[in-house]
Design a protein that fits this description.
Chain lengths: 322, 275
Protein backbone atom coordinates (compact mmCIF):
# COMPACT_ATOMS: atom_id res chain seq x y z
CA UNK A 1 0.00 0.00 0.00
CA UNK A 2 1.28 3.38 -0.88
CA UNK A 3 0.06 6.62 -2.30
CA UNK A 4 1.39 8.34 -5.37
CA UNK A 5 2.40 11.95 -4.83
CA UNK A 6 2.20 13.80 -8.14
CA UNK A 7 3.83 17.22 -8.29
CA UNK A 8 1.75 19.19 -10.78
CA UNK A 9 2.83 22.42 -12.44
CA UNK A 10 0.18 25.07 -12.88
CA UNK A 11 -0.36 28.44 -14.50
CA UNK A 12 -3.18 30.97 -14.32
CA UNK A 13 -5.27 28.95 -11.87
CA UNK A 14 -5.18 25.73 -13.93
CA UNK A 15 -2.98 22.67 -14.24
CA UNK A 16 -0.53 22.74 -17.12
CA UNK A 17 -1.17 20.22 -19.90
CA UNK A 18 2.19 18.66 -19.04
CA UNK A 19 0.86 17.92 -15.53
CA UNK A 20 -2.06 15.94 -16.96
CA UNK A 21 0.39 13.43 -18.48
CA UNK A 22 1.98 13.05 -15.06
CA UNK A 23 -1.46 12.37 -13.59
CA UNK A 24 -2.17 9.71 -16.21
CA UNK A 25 0.95 7.87 -15.04
CA UNK A 26 0.14 8.59 -11.37
CA UNK A 27 -3.26 6.92 -11.70
CA UNK A 28 -1.83 3.71 -13.11
CA UNK A 29 0.93 3.71 -10.47
CA UNK A 30 -1.64 4.27 -7.69
CA UNK A 31 -3.59 1.28 -8.93
CA UNK A 32 -0.43 -0.87 -8.96
CA UNK A 33 0.49 0.28 -5.44
CA UNK A 34 -3.00 0.06 -4.01
CA UNK A 35 -3.06 3.71 -2.98
CA UNK A 36 -4.46 7.05 -4.03
CA UNK A 37 -3.16 9.86 -6.19
CA UNK A 38 -2.28 12.91 -4.12
CA UNK A 39 -1.62 16.06 -6.13
CA UNK A 40 1.06 18.39 -4.78
CA UNK A 41 0.79 22.04 -5.81
CA UNK A 42 3.84 24.03 -4.77
CA UNK A 43 4.67 27.68 -5.12
CA UNK A 44 3.52 31.14 -4.17
CA UNK A 45 -0.03 31.42 -5.51
CA UNK A 46 -0.56 27.65 -5.73
CA UNK A 47 -3.85 27.95 -3.86
CA UNK A 48 -5.41 29.53 -6.95
CA UNK A 49 -5.01 26.26 -8.86
CA UNK A 50 -6.38 24.02 -6.10
CA UNK A 51 -9.99 23.95 -7.31
CA UNK A 52 -8.89 23.05 -10.82
CA UNK A 53 -6.53 20.37 -9.48
CA UNK A 54 -9.21 18.83 -7.25
CA UNK A 55 -11.04 17.69 -10.38
CA UNK A 56 -8.22 15.24 -11.09
CA UNK A 57 -7.49 13.44 -7.82
CA UNK A 58 -9.16 12.48 -4.53
CA UNK A 59 -6.66 14.60 -2.63
CA UNK A 60 -4.79 17.83 -3.28
CA UNK A 61 -2.16 19.27 -0.95
CA UNK A 62 -1.22 22.90 -1.45
CA UNK A 63 2.11 24.30 -0.32
CA UNK A 64 1.60 28.01 -0.87
CA UNK A 65 4.17 30.29 0.71
CA UNK A 66 5.93 33.53 -0.20
CA UNK A 67 9.18 31.68 0.51
CA UNK A 68 8.49 29.65 -2.64
CA UNK A 69 8.00 32.66 -4.90
CA UNK A 70 10.67 31.51 -7.34
CA UNK A 71 11.26 27.88 -8.07
CA UNK A 72 14.59 26.77 -6.56
CA UNK A 73 15.48 23.09 -6.13
CA UNK A 74 17.16 23.91 -2.81
CA UNK A 75 13.93 25.01 -1.09
CA UNK A 76 11.41 22.93 -3.06
CA UNK A 77 13.13 19.54 -2.67
CA UNK A 78 13.00 19.31 1.15
CA UNK A 79 9.38 20.51 1.19
CA UNK A 80 8.35 17.90 -1.38
CA UNK A 81 10.34 15.16 0.38
CA UNK A 82 8.61 15.98 3.68
CA UNK A 83 5.24 15.94 1.94
CA UNK A 84 6.02 12.52 0.46
CA UNK A 85 6.69 11.13 3.92
CA UNK A 86 3.61 12.80 5.43
CA UNK A 87 1.37 11.47 2.65
CA UNK A 88 2.67 7.89 2.87
CA UNK A 89 3.88 8.01 -0.72
CA UNK A 90 5.61 5.03 -2.26
CA UNK A 91 5.94 6.86 -5.58
CA UNK A 92 6.76 10.55 -6.08
CA UNK A 93 6.35 11.74 -9.63
CA UNK A 94 6.66 14.82 -11.82
CA UNK A 95 6.63 15.48 -15.54
CA UNK A 96 10.12 15.60 -17.07
CA UNK A 97 9.96 19.35 -17.65
CA UNK A 98 12.91 21.63 -16.92
CA UNK A 99 11.62 21.87 -13.35
CA UNK A 100 10.84 18.16 -12.93
CA UNK A 101 14.24 17.14 -14.23
CA UNK A 102 16.02 19.60 -11.95
CA UNK A 103 14.01 18.84 -8.84
CA UNK A 104 13.16 15.15 -8.71
CA UNK A 105 16.67 13.63 -8.40
CA UNK A 106 17.33 15.98 -5.49
CA UNK A 107 14.10 14.82 -3.85
CA UNK A 108 15.21 11.22 -4.46
CA UNK A 109 18.51 11.92 -2.69
CA UNK A 110 16.66 13.32 0.34
CA UNK A 111 14.38 10.25 0.47
CA UNK A 112 17.12 7.67 -0.29
CA UNK A 113 14.89 6.75 -3.20
CA UNK A 114 15.88 5.11 -6.43
CA UNK A 115 14.74 6.99 -9.48
CA UNK A 116 13.46 6.18 -12.94
CA UNK A 117 13.87 9.19 -15.24
CA UNK A 118 11.83 10.25 -18.22
CA UNK A 119 9.76 7.07 -18.33
CA UNK A 120 7.50 6.09 -21.20
CA UNK A 121 5.47 3.35 -19.49
CA UNK A 122 4.69 1.61 -16.22
CA UNK A 123 5.61 -2.05 -16.90
CA UNK A 124 4.83 -3.51 -13.46
CA UNK A 125 4.49 -2.21 -9.91
CA UNK A 126 8.16 -1.25 -9.59
CA UNK A 127 9.19 -1.59 -13.21
CA UNK A 128 9.41 1.26 -15.66
CA UNK A 129 10.15 1.48 -19.36
CA UNK A 130 12.37 4.35 -20.39
CA UNK A 131 14.11 5.41 -23.58
CA UNK A 132 17.92 5.16 -23.55
CA UNK A 133 20.62 5.86 -26.14
CA UNK A 134 18.79 8.91 -27.49
CA UNK A 135 15.61 6.89 -27.94
CA UNK A 136 17.31 4.18 -29.98
CA UNK A 137 16.40 1.56 -27.37
CA UNK A 138 13.92 1.08 -24.54
CA UNK A 139 15.15 -0.18 -21.18
CA UNK A 140 12.91 -1.72 -18.53
CA UNK A 141 14.28 -0.99 -15.07
CA UNK A 142 13.23 -2.29 -11.70
CA UNK A 143 13.65 0.02 -8.73
CA UNK A 144 13.90 -1.70 -5.33
CA UNK A 145 13.70 1.16 -2.83
CA UNK A 146 10.78 1.74 -0.42
CA UNK A 147 10.05 5.07 -2.11
CA UNK A 148 10.57 5.50 -5.85
CA UNK A 149 10.97 8.82 -7.63
CA UNK A 150 9.87 9.13 -11.24
CA UNK A 151 9.80 11.68 -14.01
CA UNK A 152 7.37 11.10 -16.85
CA UNK A 153 7.92 11.83 -20.53
CA UNK A 154 4.96 14.00 -21.44
CA UNK A 155 4.66 12.82 -25.03
CA UNK A 156 4.24 9.17 -23.96
CA UNK A 157 1.15 9.64 -21.77
CA UNK A 158 -2.27 10.84 -22.90
CA UNK A 159 -3.45 13.68 -20.63
CA UNK A 160 -5.62 12.47 -17.73
CA UNK A 161 -9.32 13.35 -17.81
CA UNK A 162 -11.25 14.96 -14.97
CA UNK A 163 -12.86 12.70 -12.35
CA UNK A 164 -16.57 12.73 -11.55
CA UNK A 165 -16.20 14.33 -8.14
CA UNK A 166 -13.84 16.90 -6.69
CA UNK A 167 -11.09 15.81 -4.29
CA UNK A 168 -10.33 17.19 -0.85
CA UNK A 169 -7.95 20.14 -0.64
CA UNK A 170 -5.59 20.61 2.30
CA UNK A 171 -2.45 22.61 2.94
CA UNK A 172 1.06 21.78 4.12
CA UNK A 173 4.07 23.73 5.31
CA UNK A 174 6.85 24.87 3.03
CA UNK A 175 9.36 24.21 5.79
CA UNK A 176 12.26 26.58 6.31
CA UNK A 177 12.46 27.75 2.71
CA UNK A 178 16.25 27.73 3.08
CA UNK A 179 17.77 28.13 -0.39
CA UNK A 180 21.34 27.34 0.78
CA UNK A 181 22.44 30.69 -0.61
CA UNK A 182 21.04 30.02 -4.09
CA UNK A 183 19.14 32.92 -5.59
CA UNK A 184 16.87 33.37 -8.57
CA UNK A 185 18.24 36.38 -10.48
CA UNK A 186 15.95 36.72 -13.50
CA UNK A 187 14.17 34.94 -16.30
CA UNK A 188 14.69 36.08 -19.87
CA UNK A 189 11.30 34.89 -21.04
CA UNK A 190 10.40 34.05 -24.60
CA UNK A 191 6.84 35.26 -24.99
CA UNK A 192 4.73 33.58 -27.58
CA UNK A 193 1.05 33.21 -28.39
CA UNK A 194 1.68 29.83 -29.96
CA UNK A 195 1.03 26.58 -28.06
CA UNK A 196 3.79 25.11 -25.90
CA UNK A 197 6.15 22.95 -27.90
CA UNK A 198 5.45 20.00 -25.62
CA UNK A 199 1.65 20.26 -25.96
CA UNK A 200 1.24 21.20 -29.61
CA UNK A 201 -0.61 18.92 -32.02
CA UNK A 202 1.43 20.29 -34.91
CA UNK A 203 5.07 21.39 -34.85
CA UNK A 204 6.92 23.25 -37.60
CA UNK A 205 10.70 23.01 -37.26
CA UNK A 206 13.48 24.58 -39.27
CA UNK A 207 17.14 23.69 -39.49
CA UNK A 208 20.50 24.95 -40.60
CA UNK A 209 19.28 25.22 -44.19
CA UNK A 210 17.00 28.12 -43.22
CA UNK A 211 20.24 30.15 -43.19
CA UNK A 212 19.04 32.96 -40.87
CA UNK A 213 16.38 33.96 -38.37
CA UNK A 214 14.60 36.22 -40.84
CA UNK A 215 13.89 33.23 -43.06
CA UNK A 216 12.02 31.52 -40.20
CA UNK A 217 9.19 34.04 -40.73
CA UNK A 218 7.78 31.93 -43.53
CA UNK A 219 7.77 28.89 -41.25
CA UNK A 220 5.99 30.95 -38.62
CA UNK A 221 3.30 31.76 -41.19
CA UNK A 222 2.87 28.04 -41.79
CA UNK A 223 2.78 27.40 -38.05
CA UNK A 224 0.15 30.07 -37.42
CA UNK A 225 -1.98 28.71 -40.24
CA UNK A 226 -2.00 25.30 -38.53
CA UNK A 227 -2.07 26.45 -34.90
CA UNK A 228 1.37 24.89 -34.55
CA UNK A 229 4.31 25.43 -32.23
CA UNK A 230 7.68 26.42 -33.65
CA UNK A 231 10.68 24.15 -33.29
CA UNK A 232 14.23 24.03 -34.58
CA UNK A 233 17.24 21.81 -34.86
CA UNK A 234 20.28 22.33 -32.69
CA UNK A 235 22.17 23.70 -35.68
CA UNK A 236 19.62 26.51 -36.01
CA UNK A 237 19.46 27.36 -32.31
CA UNK A 238 23.25 27.17 -31.90
CA UNK A 239 23.66 29.55 -34.83
CA UNK A 240 21.39 31.98 -32.97
CA UNK A 241 18.74 32.01 -35.71
CA UNK A 242 15.95 31.31 -33.21
CA UNK A 243 15.57 31.09 -29.40
CA UNK A 244 17.30 28.16 -27.67
CA UNK A 245 14.05 26.88 -26.18
CA UNK A 246 12.78 26.03 -29.66
CA UNK A 247 15.31 23.22 -29.85
CA UNK A 248 13.86 19.78 -30.50
CA UNK A 249 16.18 16.89 -29.76
CA UNK A 250 17.88 14.69 -27.23
CA UNK A 251 19.04 17.71 -25.30
CA UNK A 252 16.11 19.98 -26.13
CA UNK A 253 12.40 19.22 -26.11
CA UNK A 254 11.05 15.76 -26.85
CA UNK A 255 7.89 16.12 -28.90
CA UNK A 256 5.38 13.70 -30.39
CA UNK A 257 2.73 15.76 -32.18
CA UNK A 258 0.23 14.42 -34.71
CA UNK A 259 2.09 16.27 -37.45
CA UNK A 260 5.74 17.34 -37.56
CA UNK A 261 7.28 19.40 -40.34
CA UNK A 262 11.07 19.18 -40.63
CA UNK A 263 12.15 21.91 -43.00
CA UNK A 264 15.79 22.17 -44.11
CA UNK A 265 16.78 19.80 -41.33
CA UNK A 266 19.30 17.08 -42.17
CA UNK A 267 18.17 14.69 -39.42
CA UNK A 268 21.10 14.18 -37.03
CA UNK A 269 20.57 11.38 -34.45
CA UNK A 270 20.36 14.08 -31.80
CA UNK A 271 17.39 15.73 -33.54
CA UNK A 272 15.63 12.49 -34.46
CA UNK A 273 15.67 11.51 -30.77
CA UNK A 274 13.41 14.47 -30.08
CA UNK A 275 10.77 13.98 -32.76
CA UNK A 276 10.66 10.48 -34.16
CA UNK A 277 7.69 9.62 -31.94
CA UNK A 278 5.59 12.04 -34.02
CA UNK A 279 2.64 10.37 -35.70
CA UNK A 280 3.15 11.87 -39.14
CA UNK A 281 6.46 13.39 -40.21
CA UNK A 282 6.88 15.59 -43.28
CA UNK A 283 10.41 16.37 -44.43
CA UNK A 284 11.22 19.16 -46.86
CA UNK A 285 14.84 19.21 -47.98
CA UNK A 286 16.59 19.89 -51.23
CA UNK A 287 19.00 16.98 -50.73
CA UNK A 288 17.29 13.61 -51.19
CA UNK A 289 20.09 11.76 -49.36
CA UNK A 290 19.59 13.45 -45.98
CA UNK A 291 18.81 11.01 -43.12
CA UNK A 292 15.61 12.92 -42.27
CA UNK A 293 13.94 11.16 -45.21
CA UNK A 294 14.50 7.80 -43.50
CA UNK A 295 12.07 8.69 -40.71
CA UNK A 296 9.70 10.87 -42.74
CA UNK A 297 6.29 9.56 -43.79
CA UNK A 298 6.17 12.09 -46.59
CA UNK A 299 9.19 13.66 -48.22
CA UNK A 300 9.40 16.63 -50.55
CA UNK A 301 12.74 17.01 -52.32
CA UNK A 302 12.68 20.73 -53.00
CA UNK A 303 14.22 23.95 -51.77
CA UNK A 304 12.22 25.35 -48.86
CA UNK A 305 12.15 28.74 -50.56
CA UNK A 306 9.86 27.23 -53.17
CA UNK A 307 8.10 24.50 -51.19
CA UNK A 308 6.98 26.36 -48.06
CA UNK A 309 5.15 29.29 -49.72
CA UNK A 310 3.40 26.82 -52.01
CA UNK A 311 2.48 24.66 -49.01
CA UNK A 312 0.97 27.70 -47.27
CA UNK A 313 -1.10 28.60 -50.31
CA UNK A 314 -2.28 25.00 -50.85
CA UNK A 315 -3.34 24.64 -47.21
CA UNK A 316 -5.21 27.95 -47.44
CA UNK A 317 -7.00 26.63 -50.52
CA UNK A 318 -7.89 23.42 -48.72
CA UNK A 319 -9.23 25.33 -45.72
CA UNK A 320 -11.26 27.61 -47.96
CA UNK A 321 -12.80 24.60 -49.70
CA UNK A 322 -14.10 23.08 -46.46
CA UNK B 1 40.40 26.94 -6.50
CA UNK B 2 39.75 23.24 -6.92
CA UNK B 3 37.16 21.68 -9.22
CA UNK B 4 36.08 18.05 -9.16
CA UNK B 5 34.80 16.70 -12.48
CA UNK B 6 33.11 13.28 -12.43
CA UNK B 7 33.20 11.71 -15.89
CA UNK B 8 31.75 8.59 -17.46
CA UNK B 9 32.77 6.64 -20.52
CA UNK B 10 29.93 5.74 -22.89
CA UNK B 11 29.69 3.60 -26.00
CA UNK B 12 30.22 5.74 -29.09
CA UNK B 13 26.67 6.93 -29.87
CA UNK B 14 27.22 6.66 -33.61
CA UNK B 15 27.32 2.86 -33.29
CA UNK B 16 24.09 1.06 -34.00
CA UNK B 17 22.47 -0.44 -30.89
CA UNK B 18 22.42 -4.24 -30.87
CA UNK B 19 20.70 -6.52 -28.37
CA UNK B 20 22.15 -9.71 -26.95
CA UNK B 21 20.44 -11.76 -24.22
CA UNK B 22 17.99 -8.96 -23.53
CA UNK B 23 20.61 -6.23 -22.99
CA UNK B 24 22.65 -3.89 -25.16
CA UNK B 25 25.49 -5.85 -26.73
CA UNK B 26 28.71 -3.96 -26.08
CA UNK B 27 31.06 -6.62 -27.43
CA UNK B 28 33.68 -4.83 -29.47
CA UNK B 29 32.09 -1.43 -28.81
CA UNK B 30 34.29 1.63 -29.05
CA UNK B 31 34.10 4.01 -26.12
CA UNK B 32 34.32 7.75 -25.71
CA UNK B 33 34.17 10.25 -22.87
CA UNK B 34 30.49 11.18 -22.46
CA UNK B 35 30.14 14.38 -24.49
CA UNK B 36 28.52 16.36 -21.67
CA UNK B 37 31.36 15.29 -19.32
CA UNK B 38 33.93 16.31 -21.90
CA UNK B 39 32.20 19.70 -21.90
CA UNK B 40 32.39 19.69 -18.09
CA UNK B 41 36.18 19.27 -18.26
CA UNK B 42 36.26 22.08 -20.83
CA UNK B 43 34.14 24.21 -18.47
CA UNK B 44 36.48 23.57 -15.54
CA UNK B 45 39.46 24.56 -17.70
CA UNK B 46 37.76 27.75 -18.90
CA UNK B 47 36.93 28.68 -15.32
CA UNK B 48 40.54 28.22 -14.24
CA UNK B 49 42.59 29.70 -17.06
CA UNK B 50 43.31 32.78 -19.07
CA UNK B 51 42.01 31.62 -22.42
CA UNK B 52 43.84 34.33 -24.31
CA UNK B 53 47.33 33.73 -22.91
CA UNK B 54 46.60 30.02 -22.46
CA UNK B 55 47.83 29.96 -18.85
CA UNK B 56 46.27 28.24 -15.86
CA UNK B 57 45.31 30.21 -12.77
CA UNK B 58 48.05 29.74 -10.13
CA UNK B 59 47.14 27.26 -7.43
CA UNK B 60 44.13 25.89 -9.29
CA UNK B 61 43.46 22.19 -9.59
CA UNK B 62 41.12 19.99 -11.62
CA UNK B 63 40.54 16.47 -10.34
CA UNK B 64 38.68 14.01 -12.59
CA UNK B 65 37.02 10.87 -11.29
CA UNK B 66 35.33 7.92 -12.91
CA UNK B 67 33.67 4.70 -11.83
CA UNK B 68 34.12 1.90 -14.30
CA UNK B 69 36.08 -1.16 -15.36
CA UNK B 70 39.87 -1.26 -15.88
CA UNK B 71 39.45 -0.12 -19.48
CA UNK B 72 37.81 3.12 -18.39
CA UNK B 73 41.28 4.38 -17.43
CA UNK B 74 41.77 5.17 -21.10
CA UNK B 75 38.93 7.73 -21.26
CA UNK B 76 40.01 9.14 -17.89
CA UNK B 77 43.50 9.62 -19.35
CA UNK B 78 41.93 11.54 -22.24
CA UNK B 79 40.57 14.12 -19.79
CA UNK B 80 44.05 14.45 -18.24
CA UNK B 81 45.39 15.07 -21.75
CA UNK B 82 42.82 17.86 -22.16
CA UNK B 83 44.34 19.55 -19.11
CA UNK B 84 42.94 18.05 -15.91
CA UNK B 85 45.63 17.60 -13.27
CA UNK B 86 44.89 14.39 -11.42
CA UNK B 87 42.55 11.42 -11.70
CA UNK B 88 40.80 8.95 -9.43
CA UNK B 89 39.64 5.68 -10.96
CA UNK B 90 37.19 3.72 -8.85
CA UNK B 91 37.35 0.30 -10.47
CA UNK B 92 34.00 -1.44 -10.68
CA UNK B 93 31.85 -3.31 -13.15
CA UNK B 94 29.09 -1.28 -14.78
CA UNK B 95 26.40 -3.73 -13.62
CA UNK B 96 27.52 -3.32 -9.99
CA UNK B 97 26.54 0.31 -9.78
CA UNK B 98 23.53 2.59 -10.20
CA UNK B 99 23.07 6.31 -9.60
CA UNK B 100 22.74 5.77 -5.83
CA UNK B 101 26.06 3.91 -5.61
CA UNK B 102 27.78 6.51 -7.80
CA UNK B 103 26.46 9.32 -5.62
CA UNK B 104 27.60 7.58 -2.45
CA UNK B 105 31.15 7.26 -3.84
CA UNK B 106 31.22 10.84 -5.13
CA UNK B 107 29.97 12.11 -1.78
CA UNK B 108 32.88 10.39 -0.04
CA UNK B 109 35.34 11.73 -2.62
CA UNK B 110 34.01 15.26 -2.12
CA UNK B 111 34.45 14.85 1.65
CA UNK B 112 38.06 13.79 1.14
CA UNK B 113 39.01 16.22 -1.64
CA UNK B 114 37.02 19.27 -0.48
CA UNK B 115 36.61 20.86 -3.92
CA UNK B 116 35.17 24.38 -4.27
CA UNK B 117 32.97 23.22 -7.12
CA UNK B 118 31.76 20.03 -8.75
CA UNK B 119 31.20 20.40 -12.49
CA UNK B 120 29.74 17.53 -14.48
CA UNK B 121 27.72 16.73 -17.58
CA UNK B 122 23.95 17.03 -17.21
CA UNK B 123 23.52 13.44 -18.29
CA UNK B 124 25.35 10.49 -19.82
CA UNK B 125 24.26 9.88 -23.39
CA UNK B 126 23.92 6.12 -22.91
CA UNK B 127 21.48 5.93 -19.96
CA UNK B 128 20.11 9.48 -20.47
CA UNK B 129 19.05 9.46 -16.80
CA UNK B 130 20.13 12.95 -15.74
CA UNK B 131 20.24 12.23 -11.99
CA UNK B 132 23.69 12.17 -10.45
CA UNK B 133 24.46 15.90 -10.27
CA UNK B 134 21.20 16.79 -8.55
CA UNK B 135 21.39 13.77 -6.23
CA UNK B 136 24.96 14.60 -5.24
CA UNK B 137 24.01 18.20 -4.48
CA UNK B 138 21.06 16.97 -2.42
CA UNK B 139 23.20 14.54 -0.44
CA UNK B 140 25.89 17.16 0.18
CA UNK B 141 23.37 19.84 1.09
CA UNK B 142 24.95 22.05 -1.59
CA UNK B 143 23.14 24.35 -4.00
CA UNK B 144 22.87 23.18 -7.59
CA UNK B 145 22.74 24.81 -10.99
CA UNK B 146 21.74 22.29 -13.63
CA UNK B 147 21.71 22.46 -17.44
CA UNK B 148 24.16 25.37 -17.50
CA UNK B 149 24.40 27.16 -20.83
CA UNK B 150 26.54 29.96 -19.41
CA UNK B 151 28.53 30.62 -16.24
CA UNK B 152 29.80 33.90 -14.87
CA UNK B 153 32.28 33.44 -12.06
CA UNK B 154 32.24 36.28 -9.55
CA UNK B 155 34.39 37.37 -6.62
CA UNK B 156 37.22 35.07 -7.67
CA UNK B 157 35.04 31.99 -7.41
CA UNK B 158 32.92 32.77 -4.35
CA UNK B 159 29.75 32.73 -6.44
CA UNK B 160 28.52 31.82 -9.90
CA UNK B 161 25.68 33.19 -12.00
CA UNK B 162 24.50 30.35 -14.18
CA UNK B 163 22.31 30.74 -17.26
CA UNK B 164 19.95 27.77 -17.45
CA UNK B 165 17.78 26.90 -20.40
CA UNK B 166 14.35 26.23 -18.96
CA UNK B 167 10.89 25.91 -20.49
CA UNK B 168 10.03 29.32 -21.84
CA UNK B 169 13.37 31.08 -21.67
CA UNK B 170 16.71 31.36 -19.92
CA UNK B 171 16.82 31.50 -16.13
CA UNK B 172 19.75 33.09 -14.33
CA UNK B 173 20.49 31.50 -10.98
CA UNK B 174 23.19 32.50 -8.53
CA UNK B 175 24.86 29.83 -6.44
CA UNK B 176 27.61 30.34 -3.85
CA UNK B 177 30.58 27.94 -3.68
CA UNK B 178 30.68 25.08 -2.91
CA UNK B 179 28.04 24.01 -5.44
CA UNK B 180 27.29 21.42 -8.10
CA UNK B 181 26.97 22.69 -11.67
CA UNK B 182 25.84 20.40 -14.49
CA UNK B 183 26.48 21.56 -18.03
CA UNK B 184 24.44 21.52 -21.21
CA UNK B 185 25.66 21.68 -24.80
CA UNK B 186 25.78 25.45 -25.18
CA UNK B 187 28.30 25.83 -22.35
CA UNK B 188 31.04 25.48 -24.99
CA UNK B 189 29.84 28.59 -26.86
CA UNK B 190 32.44 31.21 -27.73
CA UNK B 191 31.62 33.50 -24.78
CA UNK B 192 29.58 31.17 -22.54
CA UNK B 193 32.02 31.23 -19.62
CA UNK B 194 33.30 34.37 -17.95
CA UNK B 195 35.85 33.96 -15.18
CA UNK B 196 37.06 37.52 -14.74
CA UNK B 197 40.54 36.48 -15.93
CA UNK B 198 40.11 35.70 -19.60
CA UNK B 199 39.44 39.04 -21.37
CA UNK B 200 35.70 39.44 -22.09
CA UNK B 201 36.56 40.07 -25.73
CA UNK B 202 38.25 36.70 -26.11
CA UNK B 203 36.30 34.17 -28.15
CA UNK B 204 36.76 30.43 -27.73
CA UNK B 205 36.40 28.28 -30.83
CA UNK B 206 32.77 27.32 -30.11
CA UNK B 207 33.40 23.94 -31.73
CA UNK B 208 33.02 21.87 -28.58
CA UNK B 209 35.64 20.76 -26.09
CA UNK B 210 39.32 21.21 -26.87
CA UNK B 211 41.15 18.27 -28.37
CA UNK B 212 44.14 17.00 -26.39
CA UNK B 213 47.34 18.40 -27.87
CA UNK B 214 50.34 16.15 -28.48
CA UNK B 215 52.02 17.90 -25.56
CA UNK B 216 48.93 17.28 -23.45
CA UNK B 217 48.92 13.60 -24.34
CA UNK B 218 52.57 13.25 -23.37
CA UNK B 219 52.03 15.14 -20.12
CA UNK B 220 48.96 13.03 -19.26
CA UNK B 221 51.09 9.89 -19.14
CA UNK B 222 52.92 11.29 -16.12
CA UNK B 223 49.90 12.71 -14.31
CA UNK B 224 48.81 10.84 -11.19
CA UNK B 225 45.87 8.42 -11.41
CA UNK B 226 44.80 6.92 -8.09
CA UNK B 227 43.12 3.52 -8.32
CA UNK B 228 40.47 2.70 -5.74
CA UNK B 229 37.53 0.40 -5.16
CA UNK B 230 33.95 0.92 -3.99
CA UNK B 231 34.73 -0.25 -0.44
CA UNK B 232 37.34 2.49 -0.08
CA UNK B 233 34.41 4.93 -0.08
CA UNK B 234 32.05 2.85 2.06
CA UNK B 235 29.98 1.80 -0.95
CA UNK B 236 28.80 -1.67 -1.90
CA UNK B 237 28.11 -3.29 -5.25
CA UNK B 238 24.40 -3.45 -4.49
CA UNK B 239 22.44 -1.54 -7.11
CA UNK B 240 18.80 -0.82 -6.24
CA UNK B 241 18.03 0.06 -9.85
CA UNK B 242 18.35 -2.96 -12.08
CA UNK B 243 17.91 -3.29 -15.81
CA UNK B 244 15.40 -6.07 -16.51
CA UNK B 245 15.76 -6.00 -20.26
CA UNK B 246 16.24 -3.77 -23.29
CA UNK B 247 14.33 -3.78 -26.54
CA UNK B 248 14.66 -1.88 -29.76
CA UNK B 249 11.76 0.25 -30.95
CA UNK B 250 9.93 -1.08 -34.00
CA UNK B 251 11.32 0.52 -37.15
CA UNK B 252 9.18 3.22 -38.71
CA UNK B 253 7.29 2.10 -41.78
CA UNK B 254 9.01 3.26 -44.94
CA UNK B 255 7.89 6.69 -46.04
CA UNK B 256 7.27 7.99 -49.52
CA UNK B 257 8.73 10.80 -51.58
CA UNK B 258 5.88 12.93 -52.81
CA UNK B 259 6.15 14.56 -56.21
CA UNK B 260 4.77 18.02 -55.43
CA UNK B 261 3.11 20.17 -52.79
CA UNK B 262 -0.52 19.75 -53.98
CA UNK B 263 -0.07 15.97 -53.72
CA UNK B 264 1.43 16.35 -50.24
CA UNK B 265 -1.49 18.44 -49.00
CA UNK B 266 -3.97 15.95 -50.47
CA UNK B 267 -2.20 13.07 -48.70
CA UNK B 268 -2.01 14.92 -45.40
CA UNK B 269 -5.72 15.67 -45.59
CA UNK B 270 -7.03 12.37 -46.94
CA UNK B 271 -4.48 9.66 -46.14
CA UNK B 272 -2.88 10.78 -42.86
CA UNK B 273 -5.92 12.91 -41.90
CA UNK B 274 -3.75 15.38 -39.97
CA UNK B 275 -4.79 18.70 -41.51
Amino acid sequence: MGNVLALCEFADGALRTSALSNLAFARSAAQAHGGDVVIALMGHGAQAASAAAAKYAPKVVVVDDAKLEHYLAESYAPALAELAKAQGASVVTATATAMGKDLMPRVAALLDAGMASDISKLAAKNQFVRPILAGNAYSTVEVDTPIICVTVRQSEFEPAAELGSAGAVSTASAGSGDTLGAKFEKLDAQKSDRPDLGDAKVVVSGGRGMKNGENFKVLEQLADLLGAAMGASRAATDAGMVPADWQVGQTGKIVAPNLYFAVAISGAIQHLAGMKGSKTIVAINKNKDEPIFQVADYGIVQEWEKAVPELISEIKKLKASR
Amino acid sequence: MKILVPVKRVPDPTQKAKIKDGHIDLTGASWIVNTFDEYAVETALRLLENGESNTRTAGSEIVVVTLGPDDAAKELRTTLAMGADRAIHVVTKDEEIDSLVVVKVLQAIVAAEKPDLVVMGKQAVDGDANQVGQMLAGKLGWPQATFAASIEMQDGGKSFVVGREVDGGVEYKRVPAPAVITVDLRIVGTHAIKNGVTPASFAYSGEGARLPSLKGIMAAKKKPMAVAKLADYGAEAKPMIREVNVSLPPPRAAGQIVADIPTLVKKLAEEAKVI
